[in-house]
Amino acid sequence: MGIRVAGSTFAFGKMDLEESCKIMQEMGFDVVDVGACGMSTFTDYVPQWFITDLDDTQGEADHIRRTTEKYGLEVAELFCCDFGVNINDPDPKKREWSQQTYEKVAKIAAASGCNSIMMLPGMIDEENGQTFDQAFDTSVTEYKRMVDVAESLGIHCNIEPCIFSVAWQPENAIKLCEAVPGLALTVDYAHQTQLSLKADDIEPLHDYARHYQAKQSAPDSFQAKPDEGWVDFGRMVQKMHDDGFDGFISVEFVSAPEVIEAGWDIRKESARLKEILDEAVAAAQG
Questions:
Q1: Per residue in 14-69, pLDDT tens?
Q2: Radius of gyration over alpha carbons of the chain, in Å?
Q3: N or C: which end of the chain has fewer CB within 10 A?
Q4: Backbone phi, then psi, for 117, in 5-degree steps?
């Protein structure tokens, strides 16, 4: 397969799956990450949610399959983040509810043909006295269970080492993966760019990556236009190729309030980034 460029159905705000898949097809994508993130703690940024009955595994999976196949799209990763509760919340009752919800969504992901389900590493609840070590150790415990669930269903559990999380620093993302056998990363350089880290600092994450997302970024601008910012996509994709990576890198600009207020056309910027990635993949793979 090599490296393939995917789209993100959740790029366009609170849009249903049908409409977003139609746009993906029109933009020339043939594979997508599907958004099931409307229950998450980041709904201002990624509100897409189309699941109506978490207990109807086959019905919900069929909906994903029918809709994506209608527009000639394969599915790569189910993008969830969390379910409105940090995976490492200090409250065990909240964590158990999160685990039960995750299991239902993971079943839908597996039945729909997704390769993986993407979650977030967990934050640090300083307001309630949670320390970094406590938050990290709780994430380890929770992700061991989540990986077991995913692998029992024939899919993978990935985490995005995102901004403000226990895995934001590359060394902590690596430490978390090493503590949880089977856990891997969905890498998006934009998050580490907010720490003013550059490629040399971020590339160690590649050894733990199972999926990639792409958005241009700069330390003062989480989402920057494709031809601006710090991320060198040519170098990034070349390293993926040199590492023998076989999988997807997804265009992942999202309709965040700040870029909408700035007058961005998300479809236009996503199309330009797709062009950059397509060129980088062609150059790397020959």
A1: 999 999 999 999 999 999 999 999 999 999 999 999 999 999 999 999 999 999 99
A2: 18
A3: C
A4: -125, 135
First-to-last C-alpha distance (Å) of the chain: 14
> Which of 10, 78, 86 shows the shortest CA–CA distance to 41?
86
The sign of the torsion formed by the CA atoms of 175, 170, 152, 54 equals positive
Pairing of strands 116-119, 247-251: unpaired
What pTM does this model have?
A: 0.98
Q: Return the exposure string of 248-278: e unless at least 16 CB atoms fall within 10 Å of the residue's CB, then b.
A: bbbbbbbbbeebeeeebebeebbbbbbebbe
**39: amino acid identity, one letter:** M
Count CA atoms within 13 Å of residue 92 on its CB side. Answer: 1
Q: Can you tell me the distance from the alpha carbon of 231 to that of 31, in angstroms, rounded to the nearest whole number?
A: 23
Query: Phi/psi class of residue 125: alpha, beta or left (left: φ > 0; alpha: ψ in -120 to 50)?
Result: beta
How many whole angstroms separate alpha carbon 88 and alpha carbon 96?
10
The C-alpha angle with vertex 200 and arms to 245 and 136, in degrees rounded to 5, equals 80
Calculate the alpha carbon distances from 168 to 82, 106, 179, 232 in Å.
16, 24, 16, 20
54 and 105 in contact (C-beta within 8 Å)?
yes
Which residue bears the tokens 């990034």? 236
Nearest Cα neighbor of 230 from 247, 244, 216 is: 216
Fold assignment, 3-285 = TIM Barrel (3.20.20)
> Looking up tokens 């990576």, which residue turns up?
245
Structural domain spans, the chain: 3-285
